[in-house]
Amino acid sequence: MGETPELFNEIATNYDRWSNLLSGEGIRAWHHFAVDRMNLWPGLKILDVGCGTGTTTRIIAKRAGPQAAVVGLDPAEAMLTVGRNAELDPDSAPIDWVLGSGEHLPFDDHEFDRITAQFSLRNMTDWTQGLREMIRVLKVGGELTILEMVQPVTSLGSLARSGLDAITANISNEALTPYQWLGVSLQHAPTTEELRSEAERLGVKRLFIHHWLGDLVVVLTGVKASAVKSQEPHLNAGPVVWAIDGSVTAFRGAQWINQFVSPGAVVHLVTVIPEKQRADQVEETDKLFWHRQHHTAESLLVPDKFHVETTMLEGNPGPVLIEYVQQARAGMLIMGKKHRSGPADFWMGSAARYVFAHASCPVLFVPTNVAPA
Fold first, then answer.
1. Does 287 map to a domain?
2. pLDDT, tens digit, for every residue of 89-104?
């Protein structure tokens, strides 16, 4: 949600209809559950980040009542146009529709009593930055509600994701092909544990988590207990090969590199984009996300401490990484490893599992929530 891919403007007109259809009407129940968890009452100031066409924003405004103030923010002008033109219940709070980026919220610190992001976090090219921004503008004692599709780590969640992938990958109608992004975007989503640990690290406490479809869809709520903590020291190193897939787990490999790799070492920062047949606009949006996440990873390295070489590749991540490591004669490979169950790991395919079986050098798997001492 930084520079808005045109994809999101293209799908605005029929967004709600197809979201309902592709979710089997589940999305309506999930939204209502999340709004219930927001603990709304009159007089609150509420922000809906990535509000899209404003369907949920209007539910929030109705629940909070006319004495509240609601802001719906989205980076896609076409989405906001649909929201502005929709009828608002006269007993609702007024809604201020704002064009803006979730990663750079145009609001003051501690401005809102409630903040929610519902199925928008994974559409940010840097969701951790979006989360930091939401917590920054939330008042101490204010409540955060995230409703999102995440990368599953359980067998049931992985099965649900495979079903979603099968549906979205085979959308062939030219007018509907942008909806292939629904499945593709999960490559850029966190796991529940990554989302939970990052929120907690940034000062959100009293966390509540509820799942649907195994652990494919999650609602996470919590209270801002303190001012946002300063970020962990940023990290990076080399021939060390650092494999980046855009997850916060992989990004945390930077901590190990910065702390333990000698100054002046060569670090190869490698991203492998999975190769699949998709509509052109979905393919372009996907590559945009991969490139931005690659750039984010590079920025985590201590400036000027290492000799950094960046490489973008395409193909099956496990075999491509192994081939690259062999050609680079790497001394170490660093990559994230999500804590999926054994069956889920097998079902979804695992680059980490493949690398473990075939690597010709030591491999450091960075866990989800453990930082170096």
1. yes
2. 999 999 999 999 999 9
Q: What is the DSSP string of 66-134?
A: TTSEEEEEES-HHHHHHHHHS---TTSPPEEEEE-BTTB--S-TT-EEEEEEES-GGGSTTHHHHHHHH
Interval 184-217: pLDDT, tens: 888 889 999 999 999 999 999 999 999 999 999 9
According to DSSP, the residues that pair with 109 across neighbouring strands are none
Query: 259 and 208, same structural domain?
Result: no
Please report, as a single letter, which amino acid is at residue 185. Answer: S
CA angle at residue 94 from 89 to 95, to 5 degrees? 100
For residue 200, give both structure tokens: 């907690």
Q: What is the CATH number of the domain that holds 359?
A: 3.40.50.620
119 contacts 150 by C-beta, under 8 angstroms:
no
182 lies in some domain: no
- pLDDT, one tens digit per residue, over 276-320 is 767 777 888 888 888 888 888 889 999 999 989 889 898 888 899
